[in-house]
Structures are given as C-alpha cells and as structure tokens.
C-alpha cells in the first residue's frame, strides 16, 4: 500500500479482505512499526474481572464486620460443614428476611443456582390435592373404603388411578 501507492479500498480489493482490517493494520503499523503487526507468542493474557469493591472507610469495614458477626450468631453450625444443600437452603430461606440474600449465600457458601433449585423443590408435592381428597373420602366412609372403592371415587372426581398414593396414606382394603 505504501510502496505501490494504492488506496485502502484498492488494497482491500486486491487482497480480497475487508477495508476495515486494512485500516486496523495501518493504524497498528503507524503506532508500533512492523513489530506491532507480528503475532504475539504464548497464551493471551486473561482480562481481569471486576474485583470485589473494598470498603472505603473504617466505618464501612466495621459495618461489614458487624454484619458477619450477626450472621454467625443467627446461622447454626450445621454439624461442622457437613450439612446438605437442602438444609443450607432451609437456613437461608429462614434468614433471608433479616439479611441480604447474596450476603447469606456468600457466608454459607451456597451457590445461587443451587439455592433456587432446592427452594423450588423444598415444599413441592404435586399430589397434595389428591392426598387430601383420599383422606377426605377415607374419613367420610368411616374408614371402611378400601383402595378399590377409593379409586372408583377418585375416578368420579376426575382423577385416574392413584394406586401409589394408597400405601402412603395407609389406606388398606378391609
């Protein structure tokens, strides 16, 4: 380009590359010479992620320390770190109205995704409505209905074959 006197677009057409790439190379050459165009050897440097903000003053440090001490006071020891994620989720759920969620998760050492996963499954029972209906039917029959009659009654209410719930609710044939 410099030796032949070609323009940027002519050079781009001649070598079948984008004109923006030619401009980029031109600016790198102008700034650093021929060495700026050579590929760097080795693994590229990792970009530094945003570090955690440091407390600005002594009062901020004291507030942070006070918060950590309160969390230690409220959070049970949980058997020296051998608690399951489900138990940790229950602890965080009970304390999340007193502290920030992100502070609690960081203090306990629980991932945010794990917390929400376990929280969704904590009290979830998809058969709770059917179980209540079975209990109501069984109690209404003076506990004389067996699993077959309860199954027939459930069918009248629009539920199909809940045989696996009968042993759970101790419904037995007489």
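^ structure tokens above, recovered residues below v
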């Amino acid at each position: 380009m410099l030796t032949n006197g070609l323009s940027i677009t002519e050079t781009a057409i001649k070598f079948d590359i984008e004109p923006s790439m030619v401009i980029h190379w031109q600016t790198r050459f102008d700034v650093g010479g021929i060495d700026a165009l050579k590929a760097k050897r080795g693994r590229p440097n990792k970009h530094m992620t945003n570090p955690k903000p440091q407390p600005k003053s002594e009062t901020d440090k004291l507030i942070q320390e006070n918060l950590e001490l309160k969390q230690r006071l409220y959070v049970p020891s949980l058997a020296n770190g051998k608690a399951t994620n489900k138990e940790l989720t229950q602890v965080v759920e009970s304390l999340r109205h007193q502290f920030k969620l992100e502070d609690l998760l960081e203090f306990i050492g629980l991932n945010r995704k794990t917390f929400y996963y376990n929280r969704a499954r904590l009290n979830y029972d998809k058969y709770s409505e059917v179980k209540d209906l079975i209990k109501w039917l069984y109690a209404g029959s003076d506990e004389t209905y067996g699993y077959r009659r309860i199954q027939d009654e459930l069918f009248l209410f629009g539920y199909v074959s809940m045989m696996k719930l009968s042993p759970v609710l101790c419904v037995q044939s007489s």
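The radius of gyration is 34 Å.
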